[in-house]
Design a protein that fits this description.
With 259 residues, the chain is mainly α. The protein has ten helices and two strands. The protein has a two-stranded antiparallel sheet with strand order 1-2. It is globular, with a radius of gyration of 21 Å. It is found in: Cell membrane; Membrane. Its main location: membrane.
């Protein structure tokens, strides 16, 4: 009598198809969240449309207008801040709260895959928001490109990293999706208010105005404005964005739990 030996199945790490499927699933989750989809795209466009007409007529320096130097940097920063600080942490907090990350931890599909997929989808959303804003600004209001294009691209990517680091920190400490949204909104409006969201840094009290240079929202707006104007970037703004990225990422790694 012979005994058939059943081969033991071998667990394999997910391949490219699994990654694409996971990114696709995350994209569906984002598109089903109506407010999370519309606000990061609609709010910046509303700010742009309300401010662009008069700002596009006021030339400031090097042929660049107030639209180029103030409105567009603000709009781009709002896009990445709303997605990075508010939207993304709420999804990650939901996955942890519902036990998805814990269950994935005992499978070949690491829970880190969900984090990566969510970051990829939110990055795509940020790029879409940037394209929409720039298309409206350039074709609708005659905006000009940055005088230092590659500096502008670099600053945008650095600001993106800083906002996402803050978002990961929010996701690490928020126990529920609602608390993640609440913490994200507090950070967004606090940093925004001190960074020129409600009327420019010059409108801040004298004691608070210096904070705009050191906090990531104001640093991003002003650094992007410098790239658009073609003037030298201030070291303070770069230090702010780099420090936020490093500290935020470190704190998120230290505090984040799968359950």
């Amino acid at each position: 009598m012979t005994t058939d030996i059943v081969p033991t199945p071998t667990a394999r790490r997910p391949g490219p198809k699994s990654w694409l499927a996971l990114v696709g699933a995350e994209a569906k989750m984002v598109t089903r969240d109506t407010s999370g989809l519309i606000i990061p795209l609609g709010l910046p466009l509303l700010i742009l449309v309300m401010s662009a007409a008069p700002a596009s007529q006021e030339v400031i320096v090097n042929g660049r207008t107030a639209l180029d130097l103030f409105v567009l940097p603000l709009v781009l920063t709002v896009i990445i801040a709303t997605i990075g600080i508010i939207n993304m942490p709420s999804f990650l907090a939901y996955y942890r709260r519902s036990g998805i990350l814990r269950r994935l931890a005992v499978t070949p599909a690491s829970p880190a895959m969900v984090l990566v997929a969510q970051v990829v989808v939110s990055l795509l959303q940020a790029v879409l928001g940037m394209i929409l804003a720039l298309a409206v600004a350039f074709w609708g209001f005659g905006a000009n490109p940055p005088a230092h294009l590659w500096a502008g691209v670099g600053i945008f990517l650095l600001a993106l990293a800083a906002m996402y680091a803050l978002g990961m920190m929010v996701a690490a400490v928020a126990p529920t999706p609602n608390s993640a949204v609440a913490i994200g909104l507090v950070l967004f409006f606090a940093f925004g208010a001190l960074g020129g969201l409600f009327g420019g840094v010059q409108m801040l009290p004298e004691a608070l105005a210096p904070l705009a240079d050191w906090l990531p929202f104001g640093a991003a707006v002003q650094a992007l404005g410098s790239a658009w104007a073609g003037v030298a970037l201030e070291l303070t703004h770069l230090i702010s964005l780099v420090t936020t990225t490093v500290v935020g990422t470190g704190v998120a790694i230290w505090l984040f739990r799968w359950e």
